[in-house]
Amino acid sequence: MISSLRGQVQHVGLDHAVVEVGGVGFAVQMTPSTLATLRRGEETSISTSLVVREDSLTLFGFADAEARELFGLLQTVSGIGPRIALATLAVLEPDKLRHALAEGNITVLTQVPGIGKKGAERLIIELRDKVGALPTPTTPAHSKTRDHVVEALLGLGFPAKAAETTVDGVLAENPDQSTSAVLRRALATLGRK
């Protein structure tokens, strides 16, 4: 699959841009906020998702990998195709979408054209647990420690949600621990010595 493009912007339209890579122009569907960052003739790098249908191959582009991941996740819900997933990201920034799903905020989700009350409820039910727990407020001093330990646990094969919850619990007990101490406590909590 095509997961990113880097090349010169040849054209910027209302709902798409053409990015030339190695002499080939790729038409990429994007949100208005992503399109606003592009300038014709300038070099760009975008995260992409290729949607294959029986009669078409369509590239969708995003400012970052997080938006691309949410785009894919949205499509796992029955009744949500790539167009509605892109419209969702056009109306709601990734953080706002995550908060709406985590809080079960139907009002925010129904702001998206094509998503009614039942569709919003289905999104919440199916994606609330998949978007991950919202990060707990952390001070800058230990947010780096949290990020490093969570990354280490992910590298060891632990699920993201379990890693984040465990590290948050360890830091809640004593926020001034060193990174290695937090990692040891998290591993002990998760059952590994």
UniProtKB/TrEMBL annotation:
Domain Helix-hairpin-helix DNA-binding motif class: 72-91, 107-126
Pfam families: HHH_5, RuvA_C, RuvA_N
Top-rank lineage group of the source organism: Bacteria
Subcellular localization, as worded in the UniProt entry: Cytoplasm
Keyword Transcription in record: no
Keywords, comma-separated and alphabetical: Cytoplasm, DNA damage, DNA recombination, DNA repair, DNA-binding
SUPFAM superfamilies documented for this protein: DNA helicase RuvA subunit, C-terminal domain, Nucleic acid-binding proteins, RuvA domain 2-like
Region (Domain III): 141-193
Keyword Nucleotidyltransferase attributed: no
InterPro entries named among the record's database cross-references: DNA_helicase_Holl-junc_RuvA_I, Hlx-hairpin-Hlx_DNA-bd_motif, NA-bd_OB-fold, RuvA, RuvA_2-like, RuvA_C, RuvA_C_sf
Subunit structure: Homotetramer. Forms an RuvA(8)-RuvB(12)-Holliday junction (HJ) complex. HJ DNA is sandwiched between 2 RuvA tetramers; dsDNA enters through RuvA and exits via RuvB. An RuvB hexamer assembles on each DNA strand where it exits the tetramer. Each RuvB hexamer is contacted by two RuvA subunits (via domain III) on 2 adjacent RuvB subunits; this complex drives branch migration. In the full resolvosome a probable DNA-RuvA(4)-RuvB(12)-RuvC(2) complex forms which resolves the HJ.
Record note on domains: Has three domains with a flexible linker between the domains II and III and assumes an 'L' shape. Domain III is highly mobile and contacts RuvB.
Function field: The RuvA-RuvB-RuvC complex processes Holliday junction (HJ) DNA during genetic recombination and DNA repair, while the RuvA-RuvB complex plays an important role in the rescue of blocked DNA replication forks via replication fork reversal (RFR). RuvA specifically binds to HJ cruciform DNA, conferring on it an open structure. The RuvB hexamer acts as an ATP-dependent pump, pulling dsDNA into and through the RuvAB complex. HJ branch migration allows RuvC to scan DNA until it finds its consensus sequence, where it cleaves and resolves the cruciform DNA.
HAMAP family: DNA_HJ_migration_RuvA (MF_00031)
Family, per entry: Belongs to the RuvA family.
Protein name per Swiss-Prot or TrEMBL: Holliday junction branch migration complex subunit RuvA
Lineage of source species: Bacteria, Bacillati, Actinomycetota, Actinomycetes, Pseudonocardiales
